[in-house]
Design brief:
206 residues; alpha/beta; 10 helices
Amino acid sequence: MSAIKTLLLYFAFILIALFQIPKHAQAQSTVVINNEYKLKAAYTYNFIKYISWPTMVPTDTFYIGVLGKSDIFKILSTIAKNRIAPDGRPIVVYQYSRPQDFNMDGKNAPQLQRCQILFVSKNADQYLDRKQIQQLSQNNILMIGEKDGFTCKGGHINFVAQRNKLRFTIHQNNAIDCGFKINPKLLKVAILGSDEECKKRNKGKR
């Protein structure tokens, strides 16, 4: 079995194990949007296994933050109660619902800075510009979004729907610039974003 098929099957088994998803919902190639946030949460958890952080601040806990109101918060919290990070640390999930909570200069800055992952919900995306996303990324935070164009604002991973199937884009250059190392197996099942694509996108908005 090829490495790509092995990884797809691995994701499928994880999804089934976590949420009892029917076996016909196999990995990215056949996953439907009906289980959208269960799938996004499961993928987010599994990204941890295929991505190396540039520097990991010594803590006893792996922190995941959710920016904005999203169903993914409760689902990630459920995963955190039943799973641990690959390095054996417990997982804690925070939610930041108000726009003022996203400010790196605000009172929640210490909590934001210790997160290893920040999931930016659709309703929170409008409050973060490229500068803010880059500022968060510089704190060794993996930025995951779900709104069109998120990786062109500096995000690392973005969930997208293609033909009623859930997939994800990885902007490798953004990740490399921030010091993240992504396992080639994960890149093989991702849509690869590019600087050139973002330039065309931004040019079209003018």
